[in-house]
Design goal:
The complex is a heterotrimer. Chain A is mostly helical. Chain A has 13 helices and no strands. Chain A has one domain: MetI-like (MetI-like fold), CATH 1.10.3720. The chains are: A mainly alpha, B alpha+beta, C mainly alpha.
């Protein structure tokens, strides 16, 4: 009896194997290869790679371009994460009541999320185009030409213009998660609070927001990771320009791999970016799950 | 829900899957005796003409199939670099004189063409034969040459009684006249960084390389510096026209593609770019009348030069299994009939000695005044280290926008040049 | 809202509606505006949206479909997305099972965190190494099989994360009861747990479908042959080639968005339920 129990327990390890094999082979192995490249001076094509230890990592701290890109990535991530959550939350609260019309609104707000980032980026490239672009054309027709701008070319506006695109595309997605979170808050809590004479704002702060905590954690983490990893939008919209105003880390890595023949260095920047993402994720988890036992 | 989606997926896969896998198989196992040449090109503007040539080649050689794909330069750079990393380039790939291709050549990724019959026959002119040379070996040849300068709308120039400028002051006067008449003088965009390369080429040609063809060697040897006053002058002059608004209201957010149609549709008077855009202009607006001159950065009385350089060329992968077929393709490409047809479509300058076609009307001015007199200069950055161009475009944008001073920008470029020269 | 006071309720409700309509317009506007060039001629499309097309014919779409060989791209996308999701669900769900019911086991815990790291890894880190592995060692570039394998590996982290989070919410008693019944773990998983996992399975399918259908980078480096390219790289290349024909380029863009938009409209309730049920625990 005891023996058969053990063998059947062992079968659990077998369950893991197919997934683990595929994952290790096609994901973890390349990851370690990338890690190894980051310790070499490989230019991306030579047959030999010279091991140079941590020199690439030391170079990161001396490289002003990587510093700029890191700052831009941080700004992009913080702003997009913060704003997309605020927008998602507000939309969710506006559409909290279940009704047919609200369902239509939910679907409308969600539609951009099913588009490819490629499609979204091309759409917005067309919107922002300075001369014949949709935004400036519409402003002209409305007699507001004074407001028309070089949306992607003005160094003060470029980053903001780029950041609007993920907000447009993912705001609805964030909203959906918050809506699900709202449904999980028991109606009785609200009812009893109302009987006690609590206002809408009081209920929001004391009942709704605490109840939304799992949804908030999820949204924050997903947006943070997604924003750090963002590539397609910026690649198509500005390619990091004008100057270095929208140059983010993923773009830097890409350019080191494909233009400057510094593949080893690019890999080191990529590893640093991974560490940054892990660090942010852990910090957010620690901050938000202090009294909750093992969410992860 | 789960059922619905899985059934949908399964049905779709069953219906379509068979077809795809079958198609894939047919693709992989071509019938015996035929050779498939893969060809990757970064030249969407010229793709129709290369495709036409490929088609006639395949008709002549039914045993060879060419799989041709053209993409824009950004897409191409990514593909070719990934392919180079895996050591597995397509049989024929487009190459240029730029450093990344020289580096690929140095890593033995391309076939050494030096001893082949097409090179021995000596049909290529100097620019074509030296576009991709490393340690005395030839790794690629140019399809055709291009000239770089300002295309201008002849009707507009006539309307305001403007002559082709031959020095900097005249050029400024032209711009000012156009601007006061409510016309955008230059529609070239600076947002796609690489487009700023072309005004810099004219500037460097007129102020540096024309007078001193050896400048590049001296620069790379450290005898000259990018912080020299002449570079300061170049940047200052371009910044001046930028600040005067001659580039229009929003040059930084523009896009190469858009700028072409802006020029073709008469939304501006000049476009500083290379001759590969001629077929595009003609397609976008067949009634457009335009011509080309080099932007003159020189003082009154000094010589003006135009930038003439090998455009794109092709190389054969070192580990290609179809080198013979590829060489056969090269021979065919540069043989008289097909090559003339290609040049006629592409509107490029011939790279083959003795084969010439009638020039497009827009280039007759520069042919008469510059090419025939040998007043040409090459790309200024052709020997600079890899990645230098990318940085230059960025720094150039920063200078134009005023977020970086010219001396700081030049200092930065000089530092990059020296640290990456080895 | 304030159900008690009728007039104020009405006013706030109207204001809310107006605000919602306004936001909805903002969200929809960009998608509607790109419809304009798809009905223009080449010349008109170079001059922006103010040159409104005179007729609403579908010539551009027909032309774009033909020139981009869209049917081939569509087929490839369906095969890649479908196969990946199928394999992914099969191996992902069963791998998540031990990780969820034996949380404290060191091996499973390590495996779980290994998968989690994958969530945070930027694709650029593995881009070239993966390409070298697939191209040089396995000769799997330019095959759908290779692309599908890479995708399975890439989607496993999120799949396993979702499944294990969900299985953890299934009461322990289920497992104990089935052990008493003499169930092996395999039977326990397929007969008892898997049927309970239906909602999360649809969530995972939808999450992955959105990613797979819309992804650009993997096929861009994995596939050269036009005959094997799925939709997004096809669109991206098309934009590079037809850079001066906005009317055709945007027609392909719309074509690329339509299949998934249709699927969304057909299954929108499931989409929304699916996406949210995975996200919020309990």
């Amino acid at each position: 009896m005891a023996k058969s129990r053990r063998t059947s327990e062992n079968i659990l390890y077998l369950f893991l194997i197919p997934a683990l094999v595929v994952y290790l082979f096609f994901y973890v192995y390349p990851m370690f290869t990338g890690l190894y490249y980051s310790l070499t001076d490989w230019d991306g094509m030579a047959k030999q790679k010279i091991f140079i230890g941590f020199r690439n990592y030391l170079d990161i701290f001396r490289d002003q371009y990587t510093r700029t890109a890191t700052m831009n990535s941080l700004i992009y991530t913080v702003v997009v994460t913060f704003l997309s959550n605020i927008i998602g939350l507000v939309l969710a609260l506006m559409l909290e009541r279940r009704s047919n019309i609200n369902n239509v609104f939910r679907s409308i707000f969600f539609v951009p999320a099913v588009l490819s980032p490629v499609v979204a980026a091309f759409i917005w490239k067309y919107m922002y185009s300075p001369q014949s672009g949709a935004i400036n054309s519409l402003l002209r027709v409305a007699g507001l030409e004074i407001l028309s701008r070089d949306w992607l070319g003005d160094p003060h506006l470029a980053m903001a213009s780029v950041m609007l695109v993920p907000l447009w595309q993912w705001g609805g997605n964030v909203m959906i998660v918050f809506l699900a979170g709202l449904m999980n808050i028991p109606e009785e809590h609200h009812e009893s609070a109302k009987i006690d004479g609590a206002s809408y704002m009081q209920r929001l702060v004391h009942i709704t927001l605490p109840g939304l905590r799992p949804a908030i954690i999820f949204n924050l983490i997903i947006s943070t990771i997604g924003s750090f990893k963002t590539f397609d939008f910026i690649f198509i919209l500005t390619y990091g320009g004008p100057g270095f105003t929208t140059e983010v880390l993923t773009l830097q890595i890409y350019k080191h791999a494909l233009y400057t023949a510094k593949f080893g260095y690019g890999s080191a920047v990529a590893v640093m970016l991974t560490l940054l993402i892990v660090l942010f994720t852990i910090a957010e988890l620690k901050l938000l799950t202090r009294n909750e036992e093992g969410y992860l | 829900m789960l059922k619905k989606v899985s059934i949908l997926l399964l049905v779709a896969m069953l219906v379509m899957g068979n077809a795809v896998f079958a198609a894939g198989k047919k693709d992989a196992g071509t019938s015996i005796g035929t050779t498939t040449l893969t060809m990757l090109d970064l030249n969407p503007e010229g793709a129709p003409f290369v495709s036409a040539l490929n088609k006639s080649f395949m008709e002549k050689n039914p045993d060879i199939t060419i799989e041709y794909e053209a993409m824009n330069s950004r897409q191409y750079d990514q593909r070719i670099q990934a392919l180079a990393a895996s050591g597995d380039l397509p049989d024929i790939c487009t190459t240029q004189m730029f450093p990344q291709y020289k580096q690929m050549a140095a890593n033995d990724l391309f076939m050494d063409l030096t001893g082949t019959s097409i090179m021995k026959s000596g049909i290529f002119d100097d620019i074509a034969a030296t576009c991709l040379v490393k340690d005395g070996k030839v790794y690629g040849v140019t399809w055709n040459h291009l000239a770089v300068g300002a295309f201008y709308n002849t009707d507009m120039f006539e309307k305001y009684n403007l002559k082709v400028p031959v020095n900097w002051d005249e050029f400024l006067k032209v711009c000012e006249t156009l601007k006061t008449n409510g016309i955008t003088p230059i529609v070239s965009d600076l947002g796609d960084g690489w487009c700023s390369m072309y005004i810099l080429n004219n500037a460097a040609g007129n102020l540096i390389y024309g007078a001193n063809p050896k400048y590049d060697e001296e620069l790379l040897a450290g005898k000259r510096k990018l912080t020299d006053p002449v570079w300061q002058e170049i940047f200052e002059k371009i910044k001046y026209i930028y600040d005067q608004g001659y580039y229009g209201k929003n040059p930084m957010g523009g896009k190469y593609e858009q700028s072409l149609s802006d020029f073709a549709n008469g939304q501006g008077a000049m476009h500083i770019i290379g001759t590969w855009v001629i077929p595009v202009f003609d397609q976008l607006n067949p009634s457009l009348k335009y011509s080309l001159f080099p932007v003159p950065f020189n003082k009154k009385g000094a010589e003006t030069y135009i930038t003439l350089e090998g455009e794109l060329g092709m190389s054969i992968a070192a580990n290609s299994k179809n080198k013979d077929a590829a060489l056969e393709y090269f021979e065919y490409f540069f043989s008289e009939g097909p090559y003339k047809e290609y040049l006629n479509g592409k509107k490029g300058f011939s790279a083959v000695k003795g084969i010439n076609v009638a020039f497009h009307p827009s280039v007759s001015y520069i042919v008469d005044n510059y090419l025939s007199k040998g007043k040409t200069t090459p790309y200024f950055s052709r020997n600079w280290p890899a990645g230098m161009d990318a940085l230059l475009f960025k720094v150039f944008q920063e200078v134009m926008m005023g977020t970086k001073s010219i001396p700081a920008a030049l200092e930065e470029l000089e530092t990059y040049l020296r640290t990456n020269l080895k | 809202m304030n159900k008690g006071k009728k007039p104020k309720f009405q006013l706030s409700r109207i204001l809310l509606r107006i605000a919602l309509i306004f936001i909805a317009l903002l969200v929809l506007l960009p998608m509607l505006i790109v419809l304009v060039p798809t009905f223009q001629t080449v010349q008109e499309s170079g001059q922006g949206i103010l040159r409104l097309p005179r007729t609403l014919n579908l010539d551009n779409y027909r032309e774009a479909w033909r020139q981009s060989k869209f049917h081939i791209a569509l087929r490839n996308s369906v095969v890649i997305t479908g196969s990946t999701i199928f394999i992914n669900i099969m191996i992902g769900s069963i791998a998540a099972f031990p990780m969820a019911i034996r949380e404290k086991n060191k091996v499973f815990k390590t495996a779980f965190y290994t998968f989690l790291v994958g969530l945070m890894l930027p694709f650029q880190v593995i881009m070239i190494p993966l390409y070298v592995l697939m191209g040089r060692t396995l000769k799997l570039t330019n095959t759908l099989t290779g692309t599908i394998l890479v995708y399975v590996a890439m989607t496993l982290p999120i799949t396993i994360f979702f499944f294990s989070q969900f299985i953890k919410t299934i009461p322990k008693e289920m497992e104990e009861a089935s052990v008493i019944d003499g169930c092996g773990y395999l039977r326990m998983f397929y007969c008892i747990f898997f049927p309970l996992m239906k909602p999360i399975t649809s969530a995972v399918i939808i999450q992955n479908m959105i990613f797979l259908w819309n992804d650009l980078l993997v096929p861009l480096i994995m596939i050269d042959k036009t005959a094997l390219k799925p939709i997004m790289p096809r669109v991206y290349m098309f934009f590079g080639q037809y850079y001066n024909q906005w009317n055709l380029a945007f027609s392909v863009l719309i074509l690329a968005a339509i299949p998934f938009l249709l699927l969304f409209l057909l299954l929108q309730r499931q989409f929304i339920k699916g996406l949210s049920s995975g996200a919020v625990k309990g």
